[in-house]
Amino acid sequence: MKQVKVLIVDDSAFMRKLISQFLKEDHQIEVVGTARNGEDALTKIKQLNPDVITMDVEMPTMDGIEALKKIMTHNPIPVIMLSSTTKEGTENTIVAMQYGAIDFIAKPSGGISLDLHKVKDEIVSKVLLASKVNMNNLQIPTGKAKSITSSLAKYSKIELRSMSQLSHNSSKQANKKILCIGTSTGGPRALQKVLQGFPKSINVPIIIVQHMPAGFTKSLASRLNSLCDICVKEGENGEIIQNGTAYIAPGGSHLKVKKVGTSLVLQIDQSSIKNGHRPSVDVMLESVSEISGYMKIAIIMTGMGSDGTEGLKTLKSKGNAKAIAESQDTSIVFGMPKSAIAANVIDDVADLGDITPTALKYIYQ
Predict the structure, then answer these.
(1) Is 254 designated active site?
(2) I need a surface site. Which of 40, 170, 221, 330 has the fewest CB within 10 A?
């Protein structure tokens, strides 16, 4: 079996040595070299031709963000970022994900983590997963979204006019629909693409589970909010959800939706991890399935594993639900969508660029 060639980029000699030791313990991985900053990394990439790069976010001379931009522009290679959980660290990590990093690993205790062994298994598994990613599927979304008309170019003018009229109807009908999104590896970039296509006037709430550790989802929501016409925020316990707003489950916590009177309210808790995940797409969808009087629209996008499949089964069994899965052609990791498709709970399989129009078709039908 061909080994995965890895280049380790970190300004700390201690961290370079520690990460090398972890990776070398797996027979499937070969550490071909190390680099002390982004500039050094660019030189080593040409010399060593690695399959995967692990890269520190914060480094002197050339930091991880600048190096990542150059790598993705000139020689796209799967990159996994290592980040501190400081406010600046989390913000930079989210930016890195938008620029094309496949995934990230949170250092347990700052820049030089003496307890990095706590995430040893995560480092190894994410390197192996990154080596299987199809970089041709990595389209980096930039700038503001196209208008809704541009996003829905496939529809006729009559259909667009009908959708527009529906979007301005009284909230009586629109309030009876809720949109749920579940994603994991590759999700931040996919979420940006999908959420940017929704108009500010959209008359449904959007509930999102993105697999992430605590501390990073607030930065993700803030960045997406700055790029989208709709409001994007991290969900808060007891919050009454509003149309035209997307709520992201806080990292490390489950997000559930319950009906209180005539309102829908978020419930954030640290109940048991489900199938290795908290937040869990299954937990979110199962809670939504209990809400009566609403049509549910669910989207499952790029990610490893099968989170979301069981939740979709429950959702569909209660009736009045539609499900969309991202296609293999655009998924960074075709795990979660593949599982849902195989379970026969998907109504539409769509490329990433077609997911928003497909969802809007159900929202405004």
Answers:
(1) no
(2) 170
